Amino acid sequence: MPRFTVHIRDEWLAVPCRDTTSTIGWLGQEALKRYIKNKPDNGGITSVKDTRFVVRRCQGLGLLDADDTIDDVLEDNDFVELAIEGDTMSPDFIPCEPGFNKHLPVQYISLDGNSLTSTDLFNLGRGLYKIKLTPEAERKVVQSRELLDTIVKENKVVYGITTGFGKFARTVIPVSKLKELQENLVRSHSAGVGNPLSPERTRMLLALRINVLAKGHSGVSLETLHAMIQAFNASCLSFVPEKGTVGASGDLAPLSHLALGLMGEGKMWSPKSGWADAKYVRFFFQNADLCSLKRSVLSSQGLALINGTQMITSLGAEAVERAQAIARQADIIAALTLEVLKGTTKAFDSESHRFCDRVQDAYTMRCCPQVHGIATDTIAFVKNIINTEINSATDNPMVFAERGETISGGNFHGEYPAKALDFLAIAVHELASISERRIERLCNPALSELPAFLVTEGGLNSGFMIAHCTAAALVSENKVLCHPSSVDSLSTSAATEDHVSMGGWAARKALRVIEHVEQVLAIELLAACQGIEFLRPLRTTTPLEKVYDLVRSVVKPWIKDRFMSPDIEAVHRLIIDQKVWNVAKPYIDKYQSEYIPESRPVSPTAFSLESPASPRKRVRHE
After folding, report:
1. I need a surface site. Which of 123, 423, 528, 621 has the fewest CB within 10 A?
2. d(CA 202, CA 340)
3. What is the DSSP letter of 173?
4. pLDDT digits (tens, 9 = 90+) for 291-344
5. Same domain, yes or no, for 44 and 113?
6. Is 108 a catalytic residue?
7. pTM greater than 0.90 (yes/no)
8. Of 159, 416, 548, 587, which residue is the catalytic one?
9. What SS3 string covers 242-306?
10. Where in the sequence is the domain holding 21, given as residue range(s)?
11. Residue 613 counted as domain residue
């Protein structure tokens, strides 16, 4: 019999439907009857028949007409929300972020615990691939599990398997209590706070934990790992609060929340339901019951599911991928600004500007290669560390099946990614710091020889005046966010865990810094394109004209004042999607292959603004 899950206020209700030709209005009334039945005061509802309500899908948030038939607008196991007149609709049902693949992927990435990259992980988060294990990984997982089962049968004392945790490491737990031990572990450690990770970031977290377990040093069963993979491939994702990890012993709170949802407790998210009780989301599993996963988890090493640096590292992987994208696009945006400001390229190549009468430009233009260059080098350094951490065993204890032993170590400590992500934030921030100064030069008529704030009828129109203020505000905020979190440490677990990395905050603030950098550069790109409007009919080089055309495909020229925030958001989206890089890259590749020796990278200012009538001359010589 078809069934539908209806959210009313804070409750989820399963409503069976024998006749799918019934209307949405009927479904709402049936859900209300069940809601009233569960409430001692009838939920304040005196009459189901007289109660006015609206119904909408949880997926896509589309409103449903009360007269529509169920089989016309819903599918079996769909999730819907019923909002009673006067109530506010729940904010829990959020659409995926832009860039997330809403359709289930058909291609797979095979995980072996050794070869996953930050790029792969970022794409897994975006929903571009499903995952599966390699045969070798499955063999290693089975071997380590067999060793763990032997340890339990022989009543050996091993941390976290037959003992308590942290301060209770010396407390041996009877065999009859081991299942309860694992249950208590996951529930008690699910103590995070704050907003949940987005579905994209939770997918990255889950995929990375699966990759680490695939190394075969954790002791989880193959059954558990397969169930986790099935949850990932169906995008059934646990509610993981973003705050609560100190980065050693691993990311205990976030990973506990990840395991809690997979056990069928707490909340989960799916593309159909949005956030819902995990016991309802489990219906989306095609071939497995979450209850069987719960039994598997609680009879195995629960610590293996929650001990590791995967929260820090998965967020770090997103940070380094976005940082790499913004760094190479910053070169292109800077080149466009240099053109609009009629800057000299003499500082970049002694032969490129032999007839220029300008000796030198301000540092914000002249020193772009040096400032941008160290940011690029730092990103490469951090990416190497993150990729190493992605494929590292970060459990405690570590199970070595080939040697028949377990070892309690410190691989769970997040100092490596924490320090690296602090470095990343500091380096990438400079791209915004120097960009904001170029925005000032574009907006200041004394420095640009363009209309004040890049608009005609100044005074009547304010143009880019406050857009520049926004850029300045973001740069100032970044200065505080760039204070390294990894220099801090607070002793926890009764001084057992007496030095921690604070890597979770290092990762989260690095992402915030990078988002601010993207937004500042979006404002610079908008300003530079607006500056070009005042230099027409002159034209810049082909690649920079392509960049200009790209911007104008989403934002029209600024003729008079209008609502600017959507323009900034539109160009920010272009940058996130790397479209600025994609339109310029073919020309950069051609230039490198034809004119630049392999040992010399292309300068971001290799493209110059030209007169249509005389392509070899710079604008300011006309």
Report:
1. 621
2. 42
3. P
4. 555 555 555 567 889 989 999 999 999 999 999 999 999 999 999 999 999 876
5. no
6. no
7. no
8. 159
9. EECCCCCCCCHHHHHHHHHHHCCCCEEEECCCEEEEHHHHHHHCCCCCHHHHHHHHHCCCCHHHH
10. 3-84
11. no
